[in-house]
Amino acid sequence: MPGTPIPPAVLEAARRASAVEPELLNSERIEATFGSYGIDVVEDRPGLRLASLYSQTGNEKICRTFAAASLNSEHRELLDELEAIASGHSIGATFRRGGWRVAKKTVYTGTVPLQTLRAEVATAMRLEPPHDLATHTYLLTLDKEGHSLDYAIILELHHPDYLNAAALSALFPDTQGNDSTINADAIHELVRLFGLNR
Fold this sequence. Notes:
Elements: H1 8-16, E1 19-20, H2 26-34, E2 38-45, E3 48-57, E4 60-71, H3 79-86, H4 91-97, E5 101-113, H5 119-125, E6 132-144, E7 147-158, H6 165-171, H7 184-193
Antiparallel strand pairs: 1-5, 2-3, 3-4, 4-7, 5-6, 6-7
């Protein structure tokens, strides 16, 4: 899968994982929880997008999910959606609007210490370390009219007032103890490859 190089353990786990179509997309859950939703693309380069998914009160934005996505942008049938994503729209919502079924093949739920991440994450979340951020890593798959695609490996770091590790595990319960999951070392390697580490 083109994009940022992904550790082989992550790709192998994604191939073995079961696909789950979430009831709510992350953007929808943020809006339902906090009453607002927006997205700031922090970095966008070929094969990689970093974004802050935030809620807003007055002029204050609080990042609820900091997401890193290794994108596969080689699919010609996705040109309209890729253009919208490149202009800053939500990945999952863009594909749903385009008629795609969006599913997640979870390879990791757990935590990453905030103090191990670049300062930009803490600043966007309005947090001071130490905090453990609930972390969800998955392969985003797309399906439309019998045509299936593996689109992105996504790593999401969640604000503790939004999702903690227990809440995240409740949303994706079949990942616990599943042989499709990976260990924390592979996640730390992915964090490094995405340029999120200090």
